[in-house]
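Researcher: Excuse me, tokens okay?
***
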Amino acid sequence: TSALFTCQSVQSSASVRINKMWWFWLVALVLAALGLWQVWIVQRHRFASHLPVVQPYYPIIGNAQLFIGKSSVDLFNQILQQFRQYDGWFKAWLGPKLVLATSHPDIMNAVLSHPDCLKKPFFYDFVKLEHAIFAGHYHLWKTQRKALNPTFNTRILNSFIPVFVQCSRQMVQHMEQSVGDVGRSISIFPFISKCTLEMVCGTTIGCDVMEQPGKETFIENLVSDANGLQPVLLFAILRYFFPDALVAKRMVSIHHYIELLYRFSRDFTEESEHRSSCFRFFETVRPLDGCSEIDAHKNNHNGLYALLNREKAKARINSTAIEDECEDYKKPLIFADQLLAAQHNGNPFTDIEVTHNIYAMIAAGNDTTALQVTHTCLFLAMHPAIQERVYREVMDVFPNPDQDIEVEDLKKLTYMERVIKESLRLAPSGPNIARQTMKDIEIAGVHIPRDSLIVMSIFSMHRRKDVWGPDADVFDPDRFLPERSVGRSANVFIPFSAGARNCIGGRYAMLSMKVTLSSILRRLRLRSDLQMNDLQFRFGLTLKLESEYLVEVEKRM
């Protein structure tokens, strides 16, 4: 018995030693593999070895620790700090992925204007609009952009002015009803976002979505204040099929770059539910009189835009077009009709391309314009003297509150245009952009291989003191006066990006913002005690404040 026990003990000890050795060799093998992988990563990116690197940096995980556990505000400030710290090129590591970064205007211009830097990186795939010009891959974007450029010509944009006027006047009426005769503090973003959503849907699909059945599904906010609960109809269109917060979170969650892993996350479930809700709503949309017709029985395809009648769209465009090219269109030429009638690469836009482009136009057009108008109103509320100067200009150009707004009148709002530009400088709706090289290139002394990722900060460049002076963080519209712009490169101010792949809707945004601000300022006075240092932005695809956009609003006498 004693011998048997001794034998079993020896066997047990040997088994333990074998298990320990097995774990030792397994760990050693994993460490060796990781070491070899790190060596391969370093060798592969030797071209950037001389560039300063964001600290702290660790092998394999790179700078990931800078993003873990951070609030969206801390994340925005952390990223901004890096762009401010380095003058030219610097590098960061998203795990094993190298990112070249800069906010230098000359380098950014060289990248954005380079013919081999027209590809958008994998970040943009997270938006799930890969068949549209916003996030489409290079070859798809190139043919679509060429086909869609005419849809934003001057005559077509001018035809949208009546839509802008109607929506902005309704918004002001709602704001007046909310503040009453004595005035009070309200969150202005829901009102403005609802207005810009109505504008973009009216000019994109020719429908007033506020009159559609099922809209209650998308009511996002109930704005409360000391005087009680004030319901505000605000669609979460961007949140549902262009989920800014979820996409931004995925951009800094390196393990979610792998689609298979992301599909097992709660974020994926939430994103899918939001998109499904939005798609179901838009499949029920019906046009108003004189707008795009939807033939719900034409085919068995799913989705709103697969059911749009292409032949009727072409007929509407032909009936709207007029022989005299110097004369404006009599009614708006909506984007959906032009998409259905257009061709790219010799073929019509497919149903999925039509759908993605319309969704992208509604999402991006609504959120970016709403944010820009909101930021401009906030800056004006913080600077009452500037606000009054804009108000006087508006009243000079539009003395009659019922007079029609013409494009020639809007051109006279020169000071307002400088105010909008200064707002775009200090708070660009798209604070960061990224590109991926399609070939080996050389920019600013760095030889950059194909498929390299480049991230650029418009927000940081717009506040560089070596470009804009020591008062770069001050709201001063007169810095855009011609005499103060002498010697300043056009490359330092790119609120709508730059180069061939810039924002196609830049002129649309400027036109709609002028109309909206004119309607607000001629009827309402805005006040705020906030200072520029009080504004805390959060990380995302678009630039948003962490806090509500609370402004004291009162009627003008």
